[in-house]
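Task: sequence design from structure.
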């Protein structure tokens, strides 16, 4: 088992030997995808733009591949038609998907050699309402492919709600009914197109079950994202960014609560992970092995990961701390406290 760690200053890999020498040392790695021996990494190089790298031999050598590119921008458009960041990379069958800032979804059918903007989502008139949540512009950070039918894709946008296609991207519909946005005026609170789901995940064994860590709470869907309901049993805080779901048990999910908005640090400077085993009816605050004083670690959207067994978890923070759990979060072991700020984690 390996853990891939995308950070502000490179891609690190953790295996049974420990942390290996980093790839792309000094370069921000915003997204990672592994498909067997084939690895993909998205780099955000600022002035030099967004770059994509692919390795066919488990990181021994890398090649540059095409990055997603937007078509020319119409004069009347306010949102830039320019790739600012690849926020997430996912695979569904033979197709690669990339979620980006400023809110474009791209697909590749040739292992990343070329990318096509999913114009049927980008050209929806509802996109005019989307806005940035944390970043200046909206972004797609979650892509869930239904294992029963890879043409059924669900994406989450900050701030643009949840969108779903049943036919591989030809047609799209909003799928955020039941979410609420307390940052909006009362008349717009339930508008599905302005919701800010910080992250959504889908249970592989029960694909009709989704979990969302939203700006205004934790939401769950058991009908394929047709409707959502807020769960009320959350401990410590209902705000956070990360969520992970057990691959076999859809009622088990993990979150990392924090103080919201201006502060964005753990409540009482004590880091914990919140776990539910009953679909959100109740939660446990898991603290064993985590710092309980003077802890100001924030865990980003992709900073919490669960492996294919559902037993092992990894969590990385903006202060460069990395923890592992081998018992579904009951206890944690600190692996490092001096990595660069951690953007994303993925087991492989």
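Answer:
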């Amino acid at each position: 088992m390996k853990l891939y760690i995308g950070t502000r200053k490179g891609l690190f890999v953790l295996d049974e030997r420990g942390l290996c020498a980093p790839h792309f040392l000094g370069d921000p790695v915003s997204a990672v995808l592994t498909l067997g021996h084939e690895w993909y990494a998205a780099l955000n190089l600022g002035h030099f733009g967004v770059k994509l790298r692919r390795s066919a031999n488990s990181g021994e050598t890398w090649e540059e591949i095409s990055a997603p590119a937007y078509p020319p921008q119409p004069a009347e458009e306010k949102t830039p038609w320019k790739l600012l960041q690849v926020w997430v990379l996912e695979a569904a069958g033979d197709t690669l998907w990339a979620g980006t800032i400023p809110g474009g979804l791209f697909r590749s059918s040739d292992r990343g050699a070329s990318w096509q903007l999913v114009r049927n989502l980008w050209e929806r008139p509802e996109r005019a309402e989307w806005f940035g949540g944390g970043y200046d512009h909206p972004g797609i950070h979650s892509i869930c492919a239904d294992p029963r039918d890879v043409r059924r894709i669900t994406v989450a946008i900050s701030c643009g709600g949840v969108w779903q296609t049943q036919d591989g991207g030809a047609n799209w519909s909003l799928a955020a009914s039941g979410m609420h946005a307390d940052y909006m005026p009362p008349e717009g609170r339930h508008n599905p197109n302005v919701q800010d789901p910080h992250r959504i995940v889908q249970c592989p064994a029960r694909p009709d079950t989704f979990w969302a860590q939203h700006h205004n709470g934790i939401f769950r869907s058991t009908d394929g994202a047709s409707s959502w309901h807020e769960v009320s049993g959350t401990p410590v805080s209902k705000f956070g960014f990360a969520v992970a779901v057990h691959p076999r048990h859809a009622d088990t999910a993990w979150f990392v609560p924090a103080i919201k908005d201006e502060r964005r640090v753990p409540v009482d400077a004590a880091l914990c992970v919140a776990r539910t085993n009953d679909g959100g009816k109740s939660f446990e605050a898991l603290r064993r092995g985590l710092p309980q004083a003077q802890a100001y670690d924030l865990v980003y959207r992709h900073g919490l990961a669960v492996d294919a067994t559902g037993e092992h978890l990894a969590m990385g923070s903006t202060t460069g701390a990395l923890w592992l759990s081998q018992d579904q979060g009951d206890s944690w072991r600190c692996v490092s406290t001096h990595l660069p700020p951690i953007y994303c984690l993925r087991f492989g």
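Residues 63 and 102 are 25 Å apart (CA to CA).
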